[in-house]
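ok here's Pyruvate dehydrogenase E1 component:
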Amino acid sequence: MADGSLTAKRQEIALLRRLEERILWLASWTIHNANHRRESRDGLKVGGHQASCASMTTLMTALYMKALRPQDRVAVKPHASPVFHAIQHLFGRQSLDKLKAFRALGGAQSYPSRTKDVDDVDFSTGSVGLGVAVTAFASLAQDYLAARGSVKPEAMGRMISLLGDAELDEGNIYEALIEACKHDLRNTWWIVDYNRQSLDATTKDRMFTRYGEIFEAAGWTVETLKWSKRQREAFERPGGAALKAWIETAPNDLYSALTYQGGAAWRERLTADLAGEPDALALVGAYKDVDLGELMTELGGHCLETILEAFERASRDDAPRFFIAYTVKGLRLPFQGHKDNHAGLMNPTQIAELRERLGVVEGEEWDALSGLSSAERTALKGLVARAPFAIANDRNYTAATVATPTQDELLAAVAGGGDQSTQAAFGKVMFDIAARKDEFAGRVVTTSPDVTVSTNLGGFVNRRGVFHRRAHEDVFKRRRIPSAQVWSMGETGQHVELGIAENNLFIALAAMGLTAPLFGERLFPVGTLYDPFIARGLDALNYACYQDARFLLVATPSGLTLAPEGGAHQSIGSPLIGMSQPGLDSYEPAFADETAVLMAHAFDRIQAADGCSTYLRLSTRAIAQPERSDQAWKTGVVEGAYWLKPPAPDARLAIVCSGALAPEALEAHAALLEDEPGAGLLAVTSADVLHRDWTAAGRSRWTEGARRTSTVERLLADLPREAGLVTLVDGAPATLSWLGSVHGHRLRALGLETFGQSGDLPDLYAKYRLDADAVLDACADLLA
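and the structure:
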């Protein structure tokens, strides 16, 4: 390298160091302001993780100011969010008012949030491990789009996760790693802040070797950033090898304790342990206490030269990278290395000492460049402006609207055919979509955790194929072995086959459901799994919805109705999960035509400005289909309920049913008409949508300026107040028990409150009181 270039590089590193100090300051001050200066009206600690921020500041400065390009996407370590917000403020993407209101209503969020923050958040983080895994599936989604020409080669970005080493205890990370290996993952960096401390204590020794072995076995390139430039230079001096060996073998807890105690403690311990190494003792003696402390703690993850060189090497290819960046938790703060520093906060005296040490002028704490000369300010502003990541003003894209199938088009797929199940109806609709030649069909992508066939997606996959960057022929087909599944595999495939890990399904749906804002290309993701196991991925489902990812989730089969499979496979509480999950409309149709209408509605909701994701709870039970006399039922299906059998004005009873138990409700209703000819039968397709609309209507006097009538209030107004309701659902009875509160009707709720067992439907429905006799008994109880 020419002398001029070397000098320029050194100058740039010096500027980056200066900038990194100011980012640390602004992050620390943001947390201090929230905890010590802002009025506390509830007496609760605000928090903010100053120590976790300090260990990540160098890495994030190198990443955002030099390595990142506009097309790259980052999942930020949750506890480093103040550093992220500080950097975004320097880029002009985060306001000072938001920083001042950190962790307050309307301020910068405690953890980066796509939906709650105003700055440039790519992936919400905070649920440990999930922000790591989503980058792998975002890379897969980018490959899917690139195979279709929707992302050009020069626009391919890296999907980057910044994570703490304690986060590597999360099992979902390794589930994602296995899936990434299957799909030949690329363009993904996971950067570990390896500070060897968790929330409670120091972590186990030598784990970095195990992590490296795991990731290398999965095909990743592992980069260990252990030593800083200053340390490497010291190790080259006489006695340096012995000093390096001491650090290599030092237990994590001892290293952390000495880091907290400082240079004098380092000298005392090293003098004792290296007593037989005269060159090493001379090397240690050559440093003043403060310099010795800095030498022992400035690890690779705090050295800009080391980090930037590693990032530059990694940028030469698209291989997945696993960086183990050695850091010190809380470096340069008064509690650096202390095992209790995770929730530590600097007091006013300590923050003042940091301000003075960094040269920030008192009273100008919110000015990140306070105290610098005019030339330094100009230089640092220029450095920020030249950062490749600063080029794009808006990285949150808007995708063009795609024409989706109408209700009538999808209804045609399930017309006729006698008895049908809702799961079979779903399969028929998907098979029909696969035959379409329009843009919508080309943007549908399906995925399932090894239950593609048993959830009725097989027909779609037969027609559209399996996605993989490397083509693979169907050997059974080539060898002329009969099989119902003819799955071609290649870049044109529209199904992503996953292993049997529900967390991966929901993280994949999160990534695919965010392609519109991340890449400017809308996909219509459809994911299927067995309803009993939706709870196994519930954290990841919540994570997907929190980011406003858009998809259609189909959970089938469900309930006690999955009779022979037994209690472990018979879902009970999933209707309540659907009701309680924000960002997700939950439906449980009973009939094939309801399923088709709801699928059309779900595809519309995926791209609506005020839309969300949709969850369909389906069944394998084939039942008789109703004759429709008009079109009004379609509106009721979407709104959550409609009268399948309207009540008479003087009705004393109404049966309310949801899902696969419609035959029992119809049987009981027919028998009830002999004594109660005015009885009604209400079909509920969504307790979730009904309940949310009802509670919103109750608030509307204050939120909308006038009291409005909800759908369920309007429907139940057809019944006299003294009438009774019997509700029936193959799930928790609480799903529908709230209906008695709408107008004060007396109510008996039937459903499941215990685990089921193997059996056939007549036996199980009778034992668990879900049959027509149970409904009639409940009706008699109300009348009595």
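+1. The two ends are 95 Å apart (CA to CA).
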